[in-house]
TrEMBL record:
GO molecular function list: phosphatidyl-N-methylethanolamine N-methyltransferase activity; phosphatidylethanolamine N-methyltransferase activity
Segment forming the signal sequence: none
Broad class of the protein's primary localization: endoplasmic reticulum
Name by which UniProt lists this protein: Phosphatidyl-N-methylethanolamine N-methyltransferase
Domain of life: Eukaryota
Taxon lineage: Eukaryota, Viridiplantae, Streptophyta, Embryophyta, Tracheophyta
Top-level enzyme category: transferase
The keyword Mitochondrion appears for this protein: no
Coiled coil segments of this chain: none
Reactions catalysed, as given in the entry: a 1,2-diacyl-sn-glycero-3-phospho-N,N-dimethylethanolamine + S-adenosyl-L-methionine = a 1,2-diacyl-sn-glycero-3-phosphocholine + S-adenosyl-L-homocysteine + H(+); a 1,2-diacyl-sn-glycero-3-phospho-N-methylethanolamine + S-adenosyl-L-methionine = a 1,2-diacyl-sn-glycero-3-phospho-N,N-dimethylethanolamine + S-adenosyl-L-homocysteine + H(+)
Binding, S-adenosyl-L-methionine: 74-76, 154-155
Pathway the protein takes part in: Lipid metabolism; Phospholipid metabolism; phosphatidylcholine biosynthesis
Intervals, Cytoplasmic compartment: 153-164
Record bears the keyword Transmembrane helix: yes
Amino acid sequence: MGLWACIGVISPFPFYYFLWTNPQTWVDLCGRGRDPCKLMAMVSHVIKLLQFISLFSVSTFSWPPPLYFWPLFIFGQFLNFRVYQLLGESGTYYGVRFGKNIPWVTEFPFGVIRDPQYVGSILSLLACLSWVPFLYIFLWVLGYVFMIHIESKEDPATRAKPLS
């Protein structure tokens, strides 16, 4: 179970890496008239479900959670929802890489927290340390740190050209 849980926890990151580094291939695969951001979101949700199932398979729950759980989890989820609220689906799911014009956002948490969605996700994961063995949280966080690094080196010349 442990190996499969590790694979499940890191499963989204090769997909995200592929899309970030090969946006034109993804746009071409999606085809004319299909929104690459919407399709990425759909695939990501399925992979995220696999990730959560993997995490739950190695978790042991007890109630109540430790006091640190609530502030970490609530603030982490606030950051995630706020990013989605400000960027929408296209901004959250690599729209700029797929050739979409995504307006620059400066409202909180942008401009205050670097990579706020990843920070929010990491905080939410750390909140669950009393339930989930450290290895699985570490692998998931490592995946986010990897993607932060990959996404920090974006070259606008490698963005996809939208299919007309």
